[in-house]
Amino acid sequence: MAAPAMEGAAATALRSVLSRVHQAAERSGRPGDRIRVVAVSKTKPVSLIRQVYDVGHRCFGENYVQEIVEKAPQLPADIEWHFIGHLQSNKVKSLLVNVPNLEMVESVDDEKIANHLDRMVANLGRKPLNVLVQVNTSGEESKSGVEPSGCLELAKHVKLNCPNLVFSGLMTIGMLDYSSTPENFQTLTNCRAEVCKELGIPEEQCELSMGMSADFEQAIEMGSTNVRIGSTIFGAREYPKKDKGH
Fold it and tell me: According to the UniProt entry, which residues carry N6-(pyridoxal phosphate)lysine (predicted)?
């Protein structure tokens, strides 16, 4: 479809990303519509999210509970929100109460947070919530996520002990300098093979959320089903001025 003459930069950037996603999917022998693009809108204003929504995009991601609970009520209810940041137990209720259209939590990294989510979904009478188990594939201490060796146990816990959660797959954040990204992605793929075999789920029913602005094409070529793209769509993150230099 032709781009409207006055289309904003973010909408134009989204089109370019979607085109690159389709091409990478074709190279991996999959149809492009099988790859979900999560437009990561952290630090971005509602007006900019609306611009991307207005060209037809519906899947958005946020990293901080206070941001998503502020933005979601100001935006259309048919958005599918993904929470992709580190989730603290004391923020679970706020997240679930204020974002009824929360589609997925991609960052379940221990049994405690899984149990909190499971109980709160039940208490609120929400439909079961899709979750991904976050795996720390790079071994960096600054990253959240379960060690690859503990991935199976956590996936099993979600699947067998959390009736209000739907175990939907695995997520990882590759190395920021991209030096070992292929190895990180391969580690996640190996975790999926182990989890699917043990739990008796077909691999195509177990998502791989991997790939961000700088490496999403490579991630898709390596089997990603869900890419999380922020700056390439929305521009660099906008932090308050006072945070500069900290």
Answer: 42
